[in-house]
C-alpha cells in the first residue's frame, strides 16, 4: 500500500470571448496565449511521459466556455493566423539577434515553440486540441471534470435555483457532447461553494467535488482527517478539500517556485521593449503595446535590471523544484501517518493557465514531478479522484462543508465589492425574467423558440465570474463592463420583443451567429423551481 | 513604466486618472504635483492588492494582462452603447452573503408602491430591518434597524453572529406606522471557524488538523477561529 496519494488538479478556464464582427479582437489573445503556452505544452508533456512509460495521473476541469471556444471554427482559424504571425516575428527575431548568441538562442527557442505549436494544432489535432485531452481521458491517464456552464461565482446566485440547475445540467450535457461520456466530478468556479449545492450535483449524476481548505476545515462539524481524506456530504457526494501547503509551494509569490531567479520573467516582453516601427505589426493596431510572448529575461530578483534568460539553467531548477515538492509531500505524509489510519490524500488544485502562461517552466515541472514520483517507487502515488474512490473503500466521515472560496479572505469579496456590485441587480433580474419567459412560453417552436434559446444564452454569458473579477482587478475593465451591459441589453431586447410579439429575424440571426455558445441549448432548462430556496445546513449524523 | 506613461499624458487625462483614483486636487494643482499624487495612488492601490490577495487571485489576474500599464485603466470611459435599464419598476430587496462578517443588500421601490403610499420617493422614511435567528425566518428573531436615505439603493451590512440565518425587510415609516415594502431572501452565515466538539482532550484528529495549514488560510473569521489547543499543537509541529 502506498504511503500517500497526490491528486494534481488543473482547472482550465477562460471566459467566452469571440468577436466575428471584428477582423481581429484583442481579448481573443487570452485564448491564443493559453493554447500556445499552456494547453499544447501540457499535451506534449503527457505525450513524452506516455512514450517513456511513466504512469502519470492528472485531473483537469475544462470549463464549457473554454471547450466551446476550442471547438469553434472561427477561433480555430484565427488561432492559426495568430501562430503564423508569431512565426513571422520569430523569423525577424532570428535575423535581428543573429550577432548576439544569448538572444539568438532564445529566438530559436520561440521559433521552435511556435513551429511545434503550428504542427500540433493543424496536423496532429486537426484544429481541435480537445481530442488530445480526450485521448488520455479514454486511456485513464487523465480524468476530466466539468464546472458550471458559464462559470459564475455560484454563491451569489444561491437564491436562483433555476440558474444553478441550468448551469449544472448544461455543463454536464456539454461534457457528454464533447467527450462522449458524463463527467463524475465538479469544480466550483473560484472554489465558490455554498451548503446544499451538492443536491444540484447529485440530481445531475455527479459524484464528487473539490472544496476550499476552510470549506472543509470550517465545516459545521469537524472533519477528523482535516483535508487529508475525502469526506462525504450528507447526501453522499464525496468532497476533496484543497491542501494549502502543496498549492502554496507552487504559486506563492514569497515561497513558491515560479519566483525563482532563474525562471523566465513574465512581464518583460519585446512587445514593450522594441521600437514601435519594428514591433508594430505584432502588437495591437500597430501602436498599442501588448505582450507578444517573446520574453528574453529571467526573473533575476526585485530589480528592473534583468538578466538574459538561460533555459538550461532553468531546466536544472525545474528538476530541483520537482524533487523538493516530492520531498515536502513525503515529509508531510510521514508526519500525518502517526495520527491517521489511512494513507493521506493530498489534493492540489490550480488554475491550469498558471503552468506555461505565467510560469513558463510549469509544464516541465509537472513532467519532472511525474518522473520523480515514478522513480521514487510506490511511496507517493499520483491518482485521480474517481480512481481513488474506486480503489479505496474507506468509510468517509459525513461533514457538511461551509460557504467558502479560494478568493481573497476566503469568501465572496473579490466578486462582490464596490467595483462590481452594480452587476447583480441586473443579472438577478435577467434570471427571474428568463424563468418568467419559460412559464409564459413553455412549448414554443420556430422563430420564438430561437429567440428564447438566444435569451437563455445571453443570461448565461452575463453571469460569468470573469467580468466582476476583472472589474475589481482593474485590468481591461472597460471590456468586462461592456460585456455585462451587452448581454443584459440583448436579453432585455429579446424579452421586450417577446412581450410585444415582434421579433426581428435579421437581428436575432446576427445575435445567434455572434453569441453562439451552446448551439443545442433548450431554453426550458430555466424552468421555475417548484419551491422557494432557503439556505440550509443539513443535519449531520455523527459517526 | 507607469510613471513613464503618466508623464506622456495630457493634463486633462491626468485629471481623469486622478478622479478615477479618488485623488484630491484643485484646478490650481501644478501638473508635476498631480502626476506625483496619481502615481502614489496607483502604487498604493497596487501594493495593497498585492498584500491582501490570495495566490489564486494573483495568478488569475495574469490571465487577463494584455495592455502595458493596465493600471492606467481609468483613463478610458466605457462607451455606453448598450444602456442598462435604470430600474425594473419593481419593489424588491435582495440580500447576498459576502463573508462571515458582511452581507450586501440592494433594493428598488416601484412606481405602483409609491402610488399606494401616496408619497414621492424623496419623502420616504426608510429603514432596513435586519432579522437574525438560528432557524430560518423564525418568529423569535433578533432584529436591528439601519436607517437609509430615499436615494440609497445598496448597503453593506455588518453581521453580528456566525452560523445564523439573516433576512431583511424594507420598511417605510410614516405617521400612521410602518409599512413593509419588501422582504428579502434568507442567507446563512458560515461558522467562520473550526467546529470544536472536544474542548479538553487532544485527539489524533487535532494533530491532523494542526497539520492542515490553518496558519496559512488568511480567511475572514469569527473570533477565535482555531481553538487554543490546536494552536498549541501547530507550534509543537512546526
Protein described:
The complex is a heterodimer of chains A (543) and B (238). With 543 residues, chain A is α/β, with parallel strands linked by helices. Chain A contains 19 helices and nine strands. Chain A has helices spanning 29-51, 64-70, 73-96, 101-124, 130-138, 161-179, 197-203, 213-217, 244-251, 270-273, 276-279, 311-337, 362-375, 385-391, 423-440, 446-462, 466-473, 477-500, 505-514; strands spanning 4-12, 58-62, 142-147, 185-187, 208-211, 231-232, 238-241, 345-351, 380-382. In chain A, strands 1, 2, 3, 4, 5, 6, 7, 8 and 9 form a nine-stranded mixed beta sheet that branches. In chain A, helix 7 links the parallel strand 4 (185-187) and strand 5 (208-211). In chain A, helix 12 crosses helix 13 (362-375) and helix 16 (446-462) runs antiparallel to helix 18 (477-500). The longest helix of chain A is centred in the middle third of the chain and has 27 residues, at 311-337. The radius of gyration of chain A is 24 Å and the shape is globular. The two termini of chain A are 26 Å apart. Chain B is of the alpha+beta class and 238 residues long. Chain B is 30% helix and 23% strand. Chain B is built from seven helices and eight strands. In chain B, strands 3, 4, 6, 7 and 8 form a five-stranded antiparallel beta sheet that branches. Chain B has a three-stranded antiparallel beta sheet with strand order 1-2-5, with no helix packed on it. In chain B, helix 2 packs parallel to helix 3 (31-52) and helix 6 crosses helix 7. Chain B is flat, with a radius of gyration of 25 Å. Chains A and B meet through helix 1, helix 8, helix 9, helix 12 and helix 15 of A and helix 3, helix 4, strand 1, strand 2 and strand 8 of B.
Helix content of chain A: 40-55%
- Helix fraction of chain B, binned, reads 25-40%
Overall, the morphology of chain B is flat
Rg calc of chain B: 25 Å
Structural class of chain B: alpha+beta
Low-confidence spans of chain A: pLDDT under 50, at least 5 residues? none
Major β-sheet annotation of chain A:
9 strands, mixed
Number of helices of chain B: 7
| DSSP summary: helix tally of chain A | 19
- Please identify the oligomeric state: heterodimer
Amino acid at each position: 500500500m502506498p504511503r500517500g496519494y497526490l491528486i494534481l488538479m488543473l482547472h482550465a478556464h477562460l471566459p467566452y470571448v469571440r468577436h466575428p464582427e471584428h477582423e481581429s479582437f484583442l481579448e481573443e489573445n487570452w485564448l491564443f496565449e493559453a493554447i500556445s503556452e499552456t494547453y499544447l505544452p501540457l499535451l506534449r508533456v503527457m505525450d513524452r511521459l506516455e512514450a517513456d512509460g511513466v504512469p502519470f495521473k492528472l485531473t483537469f476541469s475544462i470549463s464549457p466556455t473554454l471547450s466551446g471556444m476550442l471547438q469553434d471554427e472561427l477561433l480555430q482559424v484565427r488561432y492559426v493566423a495568430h501562430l503564423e504571425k508569431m512565426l513571422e516575428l520569430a523569423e525577424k527575431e532570428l535575423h535581428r539577434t543573429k550577432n548576439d548568441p544569448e538572444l539568438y538562442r532564445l529566438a530559436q527557442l520561440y521559433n521552435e515553440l511556435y513551429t511545434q505549436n503550428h504542427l500540433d494544432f493543424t496536423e496532429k489535432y486537426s484544429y481541435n486540441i480537445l481530442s488530445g485531452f480526450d485521448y488520455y481521458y479514454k486511456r485513464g491517464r487523465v480524468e476530466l471534470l466539468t464546472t458550471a456552464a458559464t462559470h459564475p461565482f455560484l454563491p451569489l446566485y444561491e437564491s436562483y435555483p433555476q440558474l444553478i440547475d441550468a448551469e449544472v445540467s448544461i455543463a454536464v450535457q456539454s461534457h457528454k457532447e464533447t467527450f462522449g461520456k458524463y463527467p463524475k466530478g465538479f469544480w466550483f468556479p473560484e472554489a465558490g461553494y455554498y451548503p446544499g449545492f451538492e443536491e444540484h450535483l447529485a440530481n445531475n449524476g455527479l459524484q464528487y467535488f473539490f472544496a476550499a481548505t476552510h470549506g472543509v476545515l470550517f465545516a459545521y462539524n469537524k472533519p477528523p482527517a482535516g483535508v487529508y481524506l475525502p469526506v462525504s456530504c450528507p447526501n453522499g457526494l464525496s468532497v476533496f478539500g484543497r491542501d494549502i501547503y502543496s498549492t502554496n509551494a507552487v504559486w506563492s509569490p514569497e515561497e513558491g517556485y515560479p519566483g525563482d531567479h532563474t525562471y523566465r520573467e513574465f512581464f518583460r516582453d519585446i512587445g514593450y521593449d522594441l521600437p514601435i516601427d519594428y514591433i508594430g505589426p505584432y502588437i495591437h493596431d500597430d501602436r498599442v503595446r501588448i505582450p507578444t510572448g517573446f520574453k528574453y529575461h529571467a526573473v533575476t530578483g526585485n530589480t528592473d535590471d534583468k538578466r538574459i534568460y538561460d533555459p538550461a539553467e532553468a531546466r536544472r531548477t525545474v528538476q530541483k523544484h520537482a524533487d523538493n515538492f516530492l520531498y515536502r509531500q513525503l515529509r508531510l505524509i510521514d508526519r500525518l501517518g502517526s495520527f491517521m489510519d489511512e494513507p493521506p490524500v493530498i489534493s492540489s488544485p490550480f488554475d491550469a493557465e498558471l503552468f506555461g502562461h505565467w510560469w513558463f517552466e510549469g509544464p516541465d515541472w509537472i513532467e519532472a514531478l511525474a518522473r520523480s514520483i515514478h522513480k521514487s517507487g510506490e511511496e507517493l502515488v499520483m491518482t485521480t479522484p474517481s480512481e481513488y474512490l474506486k480503489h479505496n473503500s474507506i468509510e468517509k466521515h459525513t461533514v457538511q462543508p461551509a460557504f467558502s472560496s479560494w478568493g481573497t479572505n476566503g469568501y465572496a469579496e473579490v466578486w462582490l465589492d464596490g467595483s462590481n456590485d452594480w452587476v447583480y441587480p441586473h443579472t438577478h433580474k435577467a434570471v427571474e425574467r428568463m424563468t418568467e419567459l419559460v412559464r409564459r412560453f413553455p412549448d414554443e417552436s420556430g422563430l420564438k423558440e430561437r429567440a428564447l434559446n438566444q435569451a437563455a444564452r445571453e443570461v448565461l454569458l452575463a453571469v460569468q465570474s470573469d467580468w466582476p473579477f476583472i472589474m475589481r482587478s482593474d485590468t481591461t475593465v472597460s471590456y468586462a463592463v461592456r460585456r455585462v451591459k451587452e448581454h443584459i441589453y440583448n436579453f432585455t431586447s429579446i424579452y421586450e420583443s417577446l412581450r410585444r410579439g415582434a421579433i426581428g429575424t435579421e437581428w436575432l440571426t446576427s445575435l445567434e451567429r455572434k453569441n453562439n455558445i451552446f448551439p443545442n441549448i433548450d431554453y426550458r432548462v430555466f424552468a421555475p423551481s417548484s419551491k422557494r430556496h432557503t439556505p440550509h445546513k443539513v443535519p449531520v449524523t455523527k459517526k | 513604466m507607469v510613471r513613464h506613461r503618466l508623464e506622456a499624458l495630457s493634463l486633462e487625462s491626468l485629471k481623469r486618472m486622478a478622479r478615477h483614483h479618488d485623488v484630491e486636487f484643485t484646478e490650481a494643482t501644478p501638473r508635476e504635483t498631480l502626476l506625483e499624487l496619481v502615481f502614489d495612488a496607483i502604487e498604493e492601490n497596487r501594493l495593497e492588492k498585492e498584500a491582501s490577495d490570495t495566490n489564486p487571485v494573483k495568478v488569475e489576474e495574469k490571465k487577463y494582462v494584455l495592455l502595458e500599464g493596465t493600471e492606467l485603466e481609468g483613463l478610458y470611459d466605457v462607451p455606453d452603447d448598450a444602456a442598462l435599464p435604470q430600474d425594473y419598476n419593481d419593489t424588491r430587496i435582495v440580500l447576498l452573503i459576502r463573508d462571515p462578517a458582511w452581507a450586501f443588500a440592494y433594493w428598488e421601490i416601484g412606481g405602483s408602491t409609491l402610488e399606494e403610499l401616496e408619497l414621492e420617493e424623496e419623502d420616504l422614511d426608510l429603514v432596513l430591518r435586519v432579522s437574525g435567528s438560528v432557524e430560518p425566518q423564525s418568529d423569535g428573531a433578533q432584529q436591528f434597524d439601519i436607517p437609509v436615505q430615499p436615494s440609497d439603493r445598496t448597503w453593506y451590512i455588518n453581521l453580528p453572529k456566525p452560523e445564523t440565518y439573516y433576512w431583511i425587510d424594507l420598511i417605510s415609516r410614516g405617521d400612521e406606522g410602518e409599512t413593509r415594502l419588501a422582504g428579502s431572501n434568507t442567507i446563512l452565515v458560515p461558522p467562520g471557524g473550526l467546529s470544536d466538539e472536544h474542548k479538553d482532550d487532544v485527539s489524533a484528529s487535532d494533530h491532523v488538523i494542526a497539520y492542515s495549514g490553518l496558519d496559512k488560510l488568511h480567511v475572514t473569521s469569527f473570533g477565535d477561529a482555531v481553538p487554543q489547543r490546536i494552536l498549541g499543537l501547530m507550534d509543537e509541529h512546526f
